[in-house]
Amino acid sequence: MADGAALSSVLGLVLFALTMAASVDKANYDARERWMKSAQDYLKQTLESEINTKVAKNIVLFIGDGMGLSTVTAGRIRKGQLKGNTGEEEVLSWEEFANTALSKTYNTDRMVADSAGTATAYHCGVKANFETIGIDSTGVFADCESSIGAEIDSMFNWALLGGKSVGFVTTSRVTHASPSPLYAHSASRYWEGDFDKPANASKCKDIAAQLIDDFPGNKAQVILGGGRRAFMPNTMQDPEYPEENGRRNDSRNLVREWMEQKTNIEKKNAAYVFDRSGFDDVDPRTTDYLLGLFEPSHMRFESQRNSGNFDEPSLAEMTSKAIQILQKNRRGFYLFVESSNIDIAHHESRGRNALDGVLALDDAVGEARKLTSVADTLLVVSADHSHVFNIGGYPYRGMDILGRRKQQRIGSIELE
Questions:
Q1: Which is the catalytic residue, given 23, 93, 115, 137?
Q2: What is the 3-state secondary structure (H, E, C) of 260-323?
Q3: CA 145 from chain center: how many Å?
Q4: Residue 188 annotated as catalytic
Q5: Percent of the chain surpassing pLDDT 90
Q6: Would you put residue 270 in left (φ > 0), alpha (ψ -120 to 50) or beta?
Q7: Whole-structure pTM over 0.85, yes or no?
Q8: CB 134 within 8 A of CB 151
Q9: What is the rounded average pLDDT for all residues in the chain?
Q10: Tens-digit pLDDT profile for residues 53-64
């Protein structure tokens, strides 16, 4: 009986071990098979997809200002963690596109590019000097005379000549470095208003005035962003901040001039708005021209906008309304959309705000995908430069991307 009991015990242990081994093998198989199947499904989808060789009628260019690869990675993780997942497995809207590439950035005179020189490159197709707007490299920074004769055309010029409608959306000032090469030519990105120009630059018009006065800016059907101080005289009180005035020294009210030009001379249905309620009242079906200036300077960070203290539309909402206005043109449109608060936040070492800017861009791209078709619309997402931003150490999967030390993971996976 003793020997039989021992044999029974040994057989039990063997059976238990075999059962556990089978469980481990099953777990290993599942862990491997999941990734293999994922890769095979993706390869199959790619091989079976047809190459789109059609000519695009519409183009939307999205720029995440300062959105380098590390910022994209952190933004992706942040998006997933806000859903309650670990985050690394998440996908941003543009990561579902059929084609992906890397771009190389520099200015003609600088190793590390700024937003003005890079915007001149991607809007105009010509590399330029550091901090110059819409001029070639014969134009010297802050030298007004050198910019005369160095002006170059942009995507706005070419789209308008093709009979298309144009517009732009940004969370920065509409006269800032990224949007301004679309319509302006300036030896300095900082000459946004007449109050910014030095005395020796009298021959050069400020950027805000160029947007209102000159082709192609005066043909933009959608202009949405911040920076209304450059469009108001210094005697005029800001509509939202009574303690602030406009900054123009030449007494021009560029907003009023724009409205008079569009409604009285061109006989168009035009609207100027400065807050969310006015923006929401705009019907894109009946609006030909829309000018929205939502802050004296840059628009607010997403966390501030969502706090309820600031009455501003989101980047996605502005993108949606812009597309609805522009796509009424049967010949097509060109739209530029910039999430500039990524860059502004990085300059101030505000990591959370920078990642919120990535997610704002993600929402805007998603909205554009809903409103357009790959059959006739080209969507491009890129960045103009990167920032000194990194994900340090070897954090466990699912650790809070905004955390500064080892913390409890966010997702549902148990980690040891």
A1: 115
A2: HHHHHHCCCCEEEECCHHHHHHCCCCCCCEEEEECCCCCCCCHHHHCCCCCCCCCHHHHHHHHH
A3: 33
A4: no
A5: 83
A6: beta
A7: yes
A8: yes
A9: 92
A10: 999 999 999 999
